Amino acid sequence: MNVKKIPQTENSLQTLAKARTGISGLDEVTFGGLPAGRPTLICGGAGCGKTLLAATFLVNGAVMFDEPGVFMSFEESSADLIRNVASLGYDLAALVEQKKIAMDFVRVERSEIEESGEYDLEGLFVRLGYAIKSIGAKRVVLDTLEVLFAGLGDTQILRSELRRLFAWLKDQNVSAIITAEQGTGALTRFGLEEYVSDCVLFLDNRVDNQITTRRLRVVKYRGSVHGTNEYPFLIDTHGISVLPVTSAGLAHSASDVVISTGVQGLNQMLGVGGFYRGTSILVTGTAGTGKTSLAAHFVDSVCASGERCLYFAFEEAPAQITRNMRSIGLDLQPRIDSGLLKFEAARPSLFGLEMHLARMYREIEEFAPAAVVLDPISALRGETGDVHSMLLRIIDLLKKQGITAFLTNLLAPQGMDHADAGVSSLMDTWISLVQLESNGERNRGIYVLKSRGMNHSNQIREYQLTSQGVKLVDAYLGSAGVLTGSARITQEAADAASVMRRVQETDRRRREIQRKRDSLERQISELRASLESEEEEARKALEYEEELERRMRAERQAMAVLRGGSAP
Amino acid sequence: MNRSAQADPQEAAVQDGHYNLRLYVAGQTPKSITALANLKTICEEHLAGRYRIEVIDLLQQPQLAAGDQILAVPTLVRRLPEPLKKIIGNLSDKERVLVGLDLRSEGTP
After folding, report:
1. A299 and A415 share a domain?
2. Closest CB to B26 among A107, A122, A151
3. What does the DSSP 8-state code read for residue A418?
4. CA of A103: which chain B residue's CA is closest?
5. Contacts of A451 (CB under 8 A, 6+ apart)
6. A158 and A149 Cβ atoms separated by less than 8 Å
7. d(CA B71, CA B55)
8. How many angstroms separate the CA atoms of A115 and A166, rounded?
9. Residues of chain B whose C-beta is under 8 A from some C-beta in A?
10. Does A183 touch chain B if contact means CB atoms closer than 8 Å?
11. From CA A397, how far away is CA A16, in angstroms rounded?
């Protein structure tokens, strides 16, 4: 509690002390809260949430900022009020018990009151003063003072007393909220705005195309800057949240952390191996190109890294998505069970755009995911400008908080329309899924249209939705261009056949050569053999010659011996 | 609180036609003094002997303001006879006070 009070004291040094409302968004719009120690007027038509806003201011003050409060009701009894705010999840009765909130129901019934002579409203002051003192209140709500105009006849007295009341409230140094009914042509029916000049909030509940949107506007805020737009706000079981429209700053930090797309081939296509954390990713494609499947892969990969992911489904029920994803081998149910994945499904027509935005805003605040999926943004119907501004704001919001945004967009078969082109410029990464039609079949192609801050593939890759998930197939790049599907398969088969042919040819040649070598070697050995036999014959002939020679010589000797001659 | 707790048994005991009146004021302002004086005059004129006036100064007992739904001062509350009636102002308009206290219908004096 003390920590939260520090900015308040800092503020008081600079400009005006402010009492934080604790309502998400409202403190941003008013740059810190309502004026502390001064009255604030909240006006608006019936059922626009004045009382609930005031009650929230009080409850948050008591619970979050240690500032007890007094709720003085002129319309509803305390019991009714306790019941009504219980719908926002506030336990007023317990807070009353803990002396953090005091309630006083002021009943003014004209029929019971006779007026005779002069009077003043000191009784009201006494009651309020007593209630403030009894719990040391710092905040006061008066809901709705205008009932006094119906209950008391003398408006002269009433007006001067109201003037005194507001001055008195300032003297008490309480941050007060006074609610008032909207008047025709004026902010309030009885002109209360002329007494409360410090801060005026105007609430509005407008119906556009059968869809109601609550809006809040800071009409004036003396001594403080404030957002001047109309801001949508939301009342539901989680209380009130106001959605600041302006987040004009582009001061968000850029992260270098890369998160996987969940599809291996796609990671390879992106130069850094995935998406940068905190960027926004748009996946566009015509019907049945597998946008949701790609989103599911991404979700699964985020959850696998132990981080939370919030999935806004606008067209399918969560059960349907999980069932369908099981068919491509992706079971998201364990992720849901472990609390890492949360589906938020709502028909786009259920609320207006602003309400969707406010709801998403609150869900994101609450769940604090690392990644958010919007599937598909084309389901959000409305004026092109409205849709664009809404997406701009949600993307801004996500960027500011460093949340990765994954948006899918269904394209009309003929291509983009203007809204898409407008949104795409906000995106950091744009992945396009296309149907490649040729040879009587359709195949799925994926390419990275743009991806800021990384070198990415320029290829159109074919991918398949298999029972093991999305698989990117190497595209066939040949003389006939990129081939996909059965054309690719045919071409691949043809390629394989020609390779085989080449292999066989080589084998054949090798065998031919071997055979040639064999025959040559045979010839060589034959020649050698014939040479050897010739040599043998020559040798034998020589031996014979020599033998003959020797015999002749021996004969000649023997003859010489016979003749008695001497040896030669 | 003490005062009303003491007053209750007495109120239960009073007989019909008895007027139990409470005048809520905030300090001794001219308005409250005038109111008390006016009230006393009217009561003496129309309710002699069968009325009781209890003056409550809210500055001293602020906790009593909520019980009777006091908003304006001075407020005169007719606690008995039933139903509860309230007259606000300094009671200078005698006719309105008589109407407020249902004394006109009784046809007095």
Report:
1. yes
2. A122
3. H
4. B66
5. A270, A271, A428, A429, A430
6. yes
7. 16
8. 24
9. 24, 26, 31, 34-35, 38, 58-59, 62-63, 65-66, 69-75, 84-94, 96-97, 99-100
10. no
11. 28
**Residue A520 belongs to what domain range?**
481-568
Stated pTM of the model: 0.64
ipTM: 0.81
Determine which of B42, B88, B103 to mutate to test the interface with A (most A C-beta atoms within 10 Å).
B88
pLDDT digits (tens, 9 = 90+) for B82-102: 788 888 888 888 888 888 887
Query: What gap in Å lies between CA A462 and CA A443, rounded to an integer?
Result: 7
- Specify whether the CB–CB gap between B42 and B97 falls below 8 A: yes
Give the C-alpha distances (Å, rounded to integers) separating A109 from A160, A262, A343, A545: 21, 68, 51, 167
Q: A444 and A435 in contact (C-beta within 8 Å)?
A: yes
Same structural domain, A203 and A329: no
Q: What is the pLDDT of residues A390-414, one digit of tens each?
A: 788 788 888 888 889 999 888 876 6
Question: Do residues A298 and A431 lie in contact, with contact meaning Cβ atoms separated by under 8 Å?
Answer: no
B96 → closest Cβ in A116, A129, A152? A116
Please name the residues between 54 and 113 in chain A that touch chain B, using a CB distance below 8 Å: 104, 106-108, 112-113
In chain A, what residues touch B41 (CB-CB under 8 Å)? none
CATH number of the domain within which B54 lies? 3.40.30.10
Looking at beta carbons, which residues of chain A come within 8 Å of B65?
123, 126-127, 130
Tell me the pLDDT of chain A averaged across its residues.
83
pLDDT value at A523 more than 90:
yes
Question: Does residue A377 sit within a domain?
Answer: yes
Q: What string of DSSP letters covers A85-126?
A: HHTTT--HHHHHHTTSEEEEE----GGGEEE-S--BSHHHHH
Please determine, for residue A104, whether its predicted confidence score (pLDDT) is greater than 70.
yes
**A212 CB contacts (<8 Å, ≥6 apart)?**
A205, A206, A352, A355
Is there a contact between B31 and A119 if contact means CB atoms under 8 Å apart?
A: yes
Split into its structural domains, chain B has a count of 1
> Is position A248 within any domain?
no
Q: Using only C-alpha atoms, what is the Rg of chain A? A: 46
C-alpha separations of B102 from B35, B87, B97 in Å: 18, 11, 8
